[in-house]
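Before a colleague's protein record goes any further, I have to sign it off. Thanks in advance; the entry in question is below:
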Amino acid sequence: MKRRGAKRKQRDELQSSSQQEQPPTENHEPPAKTAASSRAKRAKAAKPEPEPEYIEDQRNLEDLWKKTFPVGTEWDQLDAVYQFKWDFTNLENAFEEDGKLHGKTVYLFGCTEPQLVSFKGESKIIYIPVVVAVVSPFPPSDKIGIKSVQRESEEIVPMKQMKMDWVPYIPLENRESQVDRLKSQIFILSCTQRRAALKHLKIERIKKYEYCLPYFYHPFKEDELEQKTEVQIIFPAEPAPVFCEFDWELDELEEFTDKLIEEDQLAKDQKDAFKDFVKEKVREAKRANREAREARKKAREELNEETKSAFENMKFYKFYPVQTPDSPDVSNTKSPFINRYYGKAHEVL
């Protein structure tokens, strides 16, 4: 009895000692680890959130001016046209309520005007983009004129021969819609000739694009050719041809010829031949003017009243980029002149 009691006492003492060494069952994480976790949570909560990135929404007609093909611009200068962030919000605003083009059917074509302007303290030749807006219920023309100082003759060809055509412009908010379901009121002169394919074209064909001018024929207005009284003379003389300009209203042929002889531009023995050559050129020019006037008269007579009214009310607006810190100031270079076919714009903006 005494011996068993001693063993029980020894066992009870061992159990008591073991219970004191065990950690509390309610918390299995050591205190040090819990403190570190709390500090990490506080640090994470204190980290500032990044500010939301601001992306400016594109305006509905923001790319309108870029979509219009700059007719007559050299292919190797196209990148120079877009080197600046040009702003045509004046063109965009014209289509807003109370704007000059609001609610109207408009045909747009682009061009460029090389001008010496100053930008950030440096003066240089810059190709300024210009957009011409034609207010008309029908396309102003389906032809392109090809003419330059270097070319002796002028060509009037269908637009499609130069891969150009009037196409509807789709505002940004309608780009997801089907084009045939949209009633477009804005048409742009577009060109499908790819720059990458130019290397496969002949030089003469490439140069034609540089000499293109949007063509326009107004049946109620005589163009400058019909009013001209000058003829360009290239007389095949020896040892060199004679180049001059003769005005049949201002110049007297005998006196004009004698002066060329005095200046050693024409030999005496070629005087009569030269005079006959000039007379023939004058007759050709007068005949061409007369035929043009007759054709214009016939065209007027064949027009219906609705088409006549459309031509009489047709308006041309010429848009230049507005001044911004990101582009040169072109306010001093503005001109109402469009080209030799369209003449002058009714308003420059």
Summary: Residues 1-9, 17-21, 23-32 have pLDDT under 50 and may be disordered.
